[in-house]
Amino acid sequence: MRPIRFGIALTLLALAAQAPAATFTLVRPDGSRIAYHIEGQRGRGPVLLMLQGSGCDSVVLNERIRWMAAGLAPRHALLTIEKYGVAPGSDGASCTPEHMRGNSLTRRVLDALQIVARLRRERWWNRELILFGGSEGGAVAAMLAPLVPETGAVIIWSSGIGLPVGAMILSALPPSVQAEAGRVFAEARANPSPERQWGGASYLWWADAIDLVPARGLAQTPAPVLLIHGTRDESAPIGSARAARDLVMAAGKANFTYREYQGYDHFMIDAHGVDHRGEVVAAAASWLHQASRRR
After folding, report:
1. What value, to the nearest 5°, has the Cα angle with vertex 85 and ends 81 and 86?
2. Smallest Cα–Cα separation from 170: which of 178, 162, 159?
3. Beta-strand pair 151-157/125-134
4. Residue partners of 10: CB distance under 8 A and separation at least 6
5. Whole-angstrom Cα distance, residue 75 to residue 129?
6. Where are the chain's structural domains?
7. Dist CA 198 CA 194 (whole Å)
8. In angstroms, rounded to a whole number, what is the distance separating the alpha carbons of residues 100 and 94?
9. What is the DSSP letter of 25?
10. Within its chain, how far is the Cα of 208 from the centroid?
């Protein structure tokens, strides 16, 4: 991670370190196990579910999530979920065959639903839930939001959710690769094999994702939504965020906020290499505070 505004970063890391993580597992219908972690649970209270982006590294190693969580909602217990086939603490240097066999956007949504159902049995949870998703995790959060009635707010960060996922990916690729991607998408639709891979994901993942438009979930949830995107994002081009904005606003959703950050990339870094994540998190926290007051 590049050096950021150290006062902000160190403060947030200190807050995040106040309570250790507890790891739990549940059994999926196929017999495999979901691992999830709860940090900062201090008696009866709310939960912040942070959904990480792409890759197969363990969420335990993602320190960005912890300092962002501490800045967004320090009084909430932090819930994070390992993806299918990812062991807690694994560095993701190579994705396991198990991960390729089971990981997809839909699977991540189903895993989260199973965990929320388990949390409903816990006396310490007060039934307040905030969803935060960055990049691929933003697609999961958008799809999950209308399915969980306890969702009190949704924050989507640098996630191209307003176009079909396949179209968004194509828009981010150079022309020389677009033809190859189109061929892969057709092959994945015809044969969603977990053994075949492209772009770091299995054909099963691609077949599940290509035609999904995750922003439709934001139009269906009654919870307030904040959509954050940088205009210089090359991983999820700004057009996909603007399409999400237009889709949600066309649906007549009143409690929707769209924030476009001029000159910031996928990680909220400007063209001069200055990292603005701290200030963007602070602005999101202010929005969340106001949204909570209006509920």
Report:
1. 55
2. 178
3. parallel
4. none
5. 12
6. 6-163+213-294
7. 11
8. 11
9. E
10. 17
Distances (CA, A) of 244 to 66, 78, 96, 155, 251: 27, 27, 33, 13, 11
Q: Closest by alpha carbon to 103, among 48, 30, 15?
A: 30
Q: What is the CA radius of gyration of the chain?
A: 18
Number of alpha carbons in the 13 Å side-chain half-sphere of residue 28: 20
Q: How far is CA 275 from CA 5, 58, 292, in A?
A: 8, 24, 28
Residue 226 is inside which H or E element, if any? strand 225-230
Q: What number of CA atoms fall less than 13 Å from residue 97's CA on the CB side?
A: 1
Q: Tell me how far CA of residue 103 lies from CA of 99, 167, 265, in angstroms.
A: 5, 20, 27
Residue 275: strand pairing partners? 269
CA distance 132 to 290: 16
Encoded tokens for 183? 């061929």
pLDDT in tens, the chain (295 residues): 333 343 344 344 444 444 568 999 999 999 999 999 999 998 999 999 999 999 999 999 999 999 999 999 999 999 999 999 999 999 888 899 999 999 999 999 999 999 999 999 999 999 999 999 999 999 999 999 999 999 999 999 999 999 999 999 999 999 999 999 999 999 999 999 999 999 999 999 999 999 999 999 999 999 999 999 999 999 999 999 999 999 999 999 999 999 999 999 999 999 999 999 999 999 999 999 999 877 6
Distance of alpha carbon 21 from alpha carbon 244, whole angstroms: 34
pTM over cut 0.85: yes
- The answer to whether 30 and 102 are in contact (CB under 8 A) is yes
Q: Please give the CATH number for the structural domain made up of 6-163+213-294.
A: 3.40.50.1820
